Amino acid sequence: MNMITKGTRIVILTGAGISAESGIQTFRASDGLWENHRVEDVATPQGWNANPQLVWSFYQQRRRQLLDVEPNPAHTALVDLENYLDNFLLITQNVDNLHGRAGSKQLIHMHGELEKLRCEQCNHIEIMMDRDHLGEELLQCTKCEGRLRPHIVWFSEPPLQLLEIDDALSKCDVFIVIGTSGNVTPASTFLHIAKFEGAHTICINLDPPENVYFFDEFIQGKAGEILPALVQRWIEK
Ligand code: OAD
Fold first, then answer.
1. Which residues are catalytic?
2. Which residues make Cβ contacts (< 8 Å) with residue 189, sequence separation at least 6?
3. What's the predicted TM-score (pTM) here?
4. Which of 20, 39, 173, 174 is at a distance of 20 to 30 A from 234, taking alpha carbons?
5. pLDDT tens across 114-151, in order?
6. Residues with beta carbon inside 6 Å of ligand 1?
């Protein structure tokens, strides 16, 4: 596609694939396990209620990992694109902080954020990433002393900011999906909303995702290799 101008309204959806080149594992390994755990045990409210310590340790490990990873050229390319355009929204399914650290501003974390913890009682949300917040012991809310849980959208819980997402999708000219298997709803349905409203749709992914046939363009490969060149071509024209 060669027709991007400053006025083109672009919405991007990213998934685990964009952070793979930073060293964060994607979700759907061939054995169906997520870092040796069943998804039901570590990514559902039922799993949390049954074994809070296990779930806490699982996410504390992911939170500590954030200190060891860096944004890659794909994250940076999206910042360049955002800076060039007048109207841009980046929606990520990722709970890591790499888009924000690269410099993305118009950013929605629809599945929550590892950096944040939320009180089960009063819903107070705080960024808690100091050394004493990253251990194995469960933490209490600083406002009401309720139990804190990861600020992560678990299976069966509603994703965040869906109204804003829907609004942006219905107005965009181009919708680009990067590094996601298209397995999880509602993120996988965004393509259909954008397409229905007339957007040009592009997918950039290492493997053809579930919904590849519905895209206008599919570019196969690593996001960190494809995106920098693509964005430079678009914004230097
Ligand atoms: P998946 O692990 O399902 O898919 C990752 C996709 O990225 C695969 O299709 C890979 O082919 C592709 N990929 C891997 N490396 C890549 C690279 N370097 N460049 C481009 N693509 C690459 O991850 P998601 O689709 O993000 O939800 O998973 C969606 C949701 O399922 C997650 O947000 C998570 C999980 O359950 C919650 O935790 C709520």
1. 111
2. none
3. 0.96
4. 20
5. 999 999 999 999 999 999 999 999 999 999 999 999 99
6. 15-17, 20-21, 26-28, 43, 93, 111, 153, 179-181, 183-184, 205-207, 209, 222-224
